[in-house]
Amino acid sequence: MAQIEPKTAPNSRIVAKDRRRQQLIKATINCIAKRGIAGTTMADVTQDADLSLGIVNLHFQSKDKLFEETLLYLSDEYETFCANALKKAGHTAAEKLTALAELDFSPKVCDRKKLAVWFAFWGEAKSRPTYLQICAENDRKYNDVVAKLCEDLVVDGGYTDIRPQAFAIGLAALTNGLWLDLLMTPNEINRNMARDISFDYLAVIFPNHFNKSNRREN
Amino acid sequence: MAQIEPKTAPNSRIVAKDRRRQQLIKATINCIAKRGIAGTTMADVTQDADLSLGIVNLHFQSKDKLFEETLLYLSDEYETFCANALKKAGHTAAEKLTALAELDFSPKVCDRKKLAVWFAFWGEAKSRPTYLQICAENDRKYNDVVAKLCEDLVVDGGYTDIRPQAFAIGLAALTNGLWLDLLMTPNEINRNMARDISFDYLAVIFPNHFNKSNRREN
DNA sequence: GAATAATGAATGAGCATTCATTCATTATTC
DNA sequence: GAATAATGAATGAATGCTCATTCATTATTC
User: Fold this and answer.
1) Are the C-beta atoms of residues A168 and A147 closer than 8 Å to each other?
2) What is the per-residue pLDDT for A213?
3) How far B2 CA lies from chain A's nearest CA (Å)?
4) A214 touches strand C (CB under 7 A)
């Protein structure tokens, strides 16, 4: 006889499940920032989340999957931040590029906890194809966006000798490198200094669109 | 009664010991590149070195110490490379800066195995004060050298609006970021492209001393 | 033959994962 | 709509495996 109903879970349960998963992912971010990937145990994560030991395996099957989902969560979050920043920004390429650069040194992206987790994953990526693939995809997306904006600036500003792909790679590299400095030597550099260095880079490459900052905030 | 002799080990033994330690450190580099920090075990390292399981504890006391010594080994090696590059280079600041930038994208510094190990340590540094301290010290040394060279260029080229400290931080950041790209997306960027991006950066900042490359090697 | 280096089986701590059980929520029946 | 059944989320003690470290033994060097 036919099944009476396809029987889908009630909405409230689905929402609760998602909340739980996110709660565990946030605990994982805390733990990786505090103890590193090598040092975080299931007990650490579940304690940070104020839940019981078995809960991760219930929601993510394994520690590996939890970590993978954490990396995906961070990737999605960053992508959303970018999309929102671009939406809010003015319609010119220069305004959009400014918005992205500001975002990269804003507190919601550029705090030591999150940076630590990014670098923890990057540090393991060479030996973890799954991480590598996710990170490569993140790179590609960011580069495509920036390269497009660069093309517009080149047309608009009449620049010669600028290769958009190379520029995009360079800007992303500079940003990542500055993040590393913020992570390693927070006493010698802060978000504002890093942002200024980034904008100075834009200014020397696109002098018709950006000015050297000369800001010296602390 | 007096000790018969201060009893120093014969020279050949000291040398042998050092060789063994270096052999184990090199095996550690191989393993971290292949399996990551979280994934390398004592068994992995000793097998890679074709030695017995207990040998690391004999020579380094613990796994932690082995890893720390590995980071110190890489740091010393890089410092030596820099010193040699500076010695070989011509006497002008521009030549010295060129030598350093070439070094950073030369095969002996910039191969994926070593880069993977650097990033593995950077990724764990936030949660490991010892790593953090060593890395911060590396940063400081490099920045001091580059900032000094920048000061000379500023005087020589009559540049205004260049802050040597900020420039040094920016150059190091760009290099580290390009290394990350080489590690993550080796199909989309190679050493030569990375070097060109780096030299283009020098060219836009010190136009009287460096030319835009326009090289497009593969 | 003393001193030192190297081996690898044995040990046990630490940890991911399992699963029987409890508990709260949702569905069904009368 | 009260009573009962079914679902599935959550717990945490128990399990068993992985791995760093130890150390008695063997090999090598001086």
Assistant:
1) yes
2) 73
3) 49
4) no
Domain boundaries A11-61, corresponding CATH code: 1.10.10.60
Looking at residue B89, the DSSP 8-state letter turns out to be S
ipTM of the complex: 0.93
Calculate the angstrom distance between C1' of C21 and CA of A52.
Answer: 14
pLDDT digit string, tens, across residues A144-181: 999 999 999 999 999 999 999 999 999 999 999 999 99
Whether B6 CB is under 7 Å from strand D: no
Q: Do residues A49 and A27 touch, judged by C-beta distance below 8 A?
A: yes
Q: Map out the domains of chain A as residue ranges.
A: 11-61, 68-218
CB contact under 8 A, B123 and A124: yes
Q: Does domain B62-218 have CATH number 3.20.20.60?
A: no
Give the residues of chain B that fall short of pLDDT 50: 1-6, 215-218
Which residues 143-172 in chain A show a CB within 8 A of chain B? Answer: 161, 166, 169-170, 172
Q: Looking at the domain that runs over A68-218, which CATH code has it been given? A: 1.10.357.10
CA of A4 to C1' of D1 (A): 24
Give the pLDDT confidence of A116-146 residue by residue, as tens digits.
999 999 999 999 999 999 999 999 999 999 9
Cα separations (Å) of B8 from A8, B5, B12, B57, B111?
78, 8, 11, 22, 40
CA distance A200 to B118: 28
CB-defined contacts A:B, below 8 A: 160
Rounded CA-CA distance B173/A174 in Å is 5
Handedness of CA B190, B193, B199, B200 (dihedral sign): negative
Q: Which residues in range 17-46 of chain B are in contact with strand C, contact meaning CB within 7 A of any of its atoms?
A: 17, 20
